[in-house]
């Protein structure tokens, strides 16, 4: 067998190195969300799997997208303009400014929930305390156990929803549990029952643990936790992200019936009232990021707010995601992997991110 001359071997080796160096898909310069810039638009960055698990992404992301992440065993997300706008709002938060209110709005499937999840991850990397409601509409439309409030006459408590929220809060803030949240102390005595109380100057984590240990007190514990976090944020002891999917459901309708069989209003739900207080101007050093969901009313009373519209994919964004799916063998048919197939996906999905992802999942 004839051997290649040394010059040819060197040329072949250089070409192989060049091919190896080519990125199979368009990656951002950094996986650190705080380092993302306009040059990274339309590129993918990775959220570590451990961080995604700690933040309960399997619960806060759309279910089909969460299943895709589990299958691929990684969390790669596009850097899009709406996320950079949210980052600018984060950077404007100050102890001297009232809590900044931001509303994500846009067509179905254009990335509102995904952008909110990206914001939760950013807050996690910056050691912000995170108050994340997976879906406010669960509180108003998914009926679980109901009890009358002992704290405020006429109010309705939702113990099971409150326990679920406290569990979610504890998991998402494990990175701060034994530091910031333990070091911060209660500012007053909380008397829950004749025998149960949390005295002044106790760790905030005690409030959470009280609610988890005694579900019938959980709703009151959520209210106390929210009050303490607003106070400590305003003092400069922490920065606070309040992230709510379907936040306009705080002002929507409910399917919860009262004793006389009439429907309760959102004004009568303790959990709703506790989170509406974050829309006030009486606290500082935080960001309230909420999604206006078209399943609910569109005239929620949260003015003034900063509106950020989520958009359809650009051709470059769809192409970057197509390249990623090819690299991960998520696209299995030759037709879908081809340039002609990509153009058909453009046409069928009409550049809607949700429809594009679903079409890729079936090809």
TrEMBL record:
Belongs to the mitochondrion-specific ribosomal protein mS29 family. Coiled coil: none annotated. This is Small ribosomal subunit protein mS29. One of its GO terms (cellular component) is mitochondrial small ribosomal subunit. GO terms for molecular function: structural constituent of ribosome. Its main location: mitochondrion. Keywords: Mitochondrion, Ribonucleoprotein, Ribosomal protein, Transit peptide. It holds the Pfam family DAP3. It comes from Panagrellus redivivus. The lineage of its organism: Eukaryota, Metazoa, Ecdysozoa, Nematoda, Chromadorea.
């Amino acid at each position: 067998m004839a051997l290649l001359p040394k010059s040819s071997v060197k040329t072949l080796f250089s070409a192989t190195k060049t091919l190896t160096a080519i990125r199979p898909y368009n990656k951002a310069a950094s996986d650190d969300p705080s380092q993302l810039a306009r040059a990274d638009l339309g590129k993918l960055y990775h959220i570590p799997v451990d961080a995604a698990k700690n933040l309960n992404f399997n619960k806060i992301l759309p279910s089909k997208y969460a299943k895709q992440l589990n299958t691929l065993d990684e969390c790669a997300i596009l850097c899009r303009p709406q996320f950079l706008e949210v980052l600018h709002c984060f950077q404007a938060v100050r102890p001297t400014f009232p809590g900044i209110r931001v509303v994500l709005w846009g067509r179905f499937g254009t990335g509102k929930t995904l952008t909110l999840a990206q914001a939760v991850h950013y807050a996690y990397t910056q050691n912000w305390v995170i108050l994340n409601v997976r879906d406010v509409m669960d509180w108003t439309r998914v009926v679980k156990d109901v009890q009358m409030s002992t704290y405020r006459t006429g109010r309705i408590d939702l113990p099971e929803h409150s326990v679920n929220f406290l569990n979610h809060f504890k998991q998402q803030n494990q990175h701060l549990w034994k530091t910031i949240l333990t070091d911060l102390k209660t500012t007053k005595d909380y008397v829950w029952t004749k025998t149960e109380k949390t005295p002044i100057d106790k760790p905030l984590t005690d409030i959470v643990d009280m609610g988890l240990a005694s579900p019938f007190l959980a709703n009151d514990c959520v209210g106390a936790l929210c009050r303490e976090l607003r106070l400590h944020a305003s003092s400069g002891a922490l920065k606070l992200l309040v992230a709510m999917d379907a936040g306009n459901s705080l002002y929507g309708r409910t399917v919860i019936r009262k004793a006389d069989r009439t429907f309760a209003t959102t004004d009568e739900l303790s959990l709703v009232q506790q989170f509406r207080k974050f829309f006030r101007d009486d606290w500082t050093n935080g960001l309230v990021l909420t999604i206006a969901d078209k399943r609910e009313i569109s005239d929620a009373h949260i003015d003034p707010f900063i509106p950020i519209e989520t958009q359809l994919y650009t051709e470059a964004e769809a192409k970057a995601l197509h390249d990623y799916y090819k690299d991960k063998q998520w696209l299995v048919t030759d037709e879908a992997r081809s340039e002609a197939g990509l153009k058909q996906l453009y046409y069928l999905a009409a550049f809607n991110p949700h429809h594009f992802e679903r079409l890729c999942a079936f090809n």
